[in-house]
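Changelog excerpt

This revision adds worked examples to the README so contributors can see how folded entries look when concatenated. The first example is reproduced verbatim below.
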Amino acid sequence: MIDMFSPAEELIYQYAVKKRSKGKNYQVFMMASAKNFLRRYYASVNAYLGTLDIN
């Protein structure tokens, strides 16, 4: 179910739609999507913090 206000190009949204289309329960696909988001967010923050020169 993609409506005109959904961010269809977002990777996390696409992941949630894929899980939902497989017939997963609401809590299951939302938790999986949250974990996917947090994993990507942590990786990007960690990469950014690695570029900082802190002495």
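The second example, added in the same revision:
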Amino acid sequence: MGGLGPIGRSPGYARLLAAQTISPLGDAMATTALILHLQQTLGTPTSVGLLLFAQAIPPVAAPFAGAIADRVRPARLLGAGLLVQAVLAGILSLRLPSLGPLLAIVFLLALVDTPLGAAVGRCIPFVVADEDLVAANTLRGGMRELGAVLGPPLAGLIFATSGARLVLGVDAVTFLLAVPLVLGLPAARSAPEAHLSSAPTFLRDVRRGLSFVARTPSLLAIAAGFWVVVFFTAPDDLILPFLARTTFRSGPVGVGVLLAAASVGLLVGLPLVGPLGRRLGATTAIVAGFAVMATGNLFTAAAPWLAAAFAAQMIRGLAIPLADSHVATHIQRAVPPQLLGRVLSNIYGGVAVAAALGYLVGGPVLHATSPRTSLVIVGCGGLIGTLACAALLRRSRRPMP
């Protein structure tokens, strides 16, 4: 049992990990199917950018979502959220509406999901020991990305033969399968469930979560650097389908394979997270991860073939778990348990908003330039963000005068 790490030592974590594997598989399939559907029916980068924007913008409500995550028992919040998402995905599958209603439903799916990520991150320190925290966060990220590896190629195959509706139906089923896995999760010992109807107390909780990030130099440095890096690197999800289709003349399967490349690299990089983190230290590992992610996009811009672009995106993916696992672990160790849901939601919600803004800008940039030029822009911007993050972290370690 010990050889399985946190999975063997914590049945609760094993169930949580299973849920974090099943549901993201359906999400990755659904996103790929919707991208292919919009490419086929509308054919414009702007429509795909609006889709990704609709998915990414709901976390602007992260301060409120984090307060909910700190107040409601994780099992209850996750179970209810997954059921609502199953209903919404089912509506998409049955109706497959025009662009406006489609974007509205995608927005609602992401809005429901906003407090769920904070609930999962808040729950992990209560189901694993502290010495297992880095490994638990790494495995969570890896299994979540396993869906991103398998989902796009599977969605491309199903879309090519049966269209988008069947893929979206699979997404609805994955939400339902995840529900029983989260129902037995323990409540946080330090934060009993409260009534959401107490508006003054709720708003005070929201402000406390925001002020804690603003007043903690290391958290503010990591958050600000993370947001800048993501603003520049997120649009590669928008650019890659057009690189595959217009530059390399690939079909739906080629698009799915290229979109999965970074996730393949992520899985390959999982065993390196622990050793590199111990050698570099947490904050250096975060900065190094950001730098490699940006450089991978520059390599992709120079790739002469689809296979070379796949390899470059794999290099980018190698660094994702190094950065993300150490960001999450630093937050979990630095923040009091009663504030953890809010801080996680605020920082990762900011990441999602930065991604949304990147998608919003990335569509017109791609339309005005080309996939290769757009990748050069996002790669250089990611490196600038990495330098900014390193500078902010260095400043946060200076003693106050």
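Reviewer comment on example two: Residues 20 and 323 are 19 Å apart (CA to CA). The chain is about 85% helix and 0% strand.
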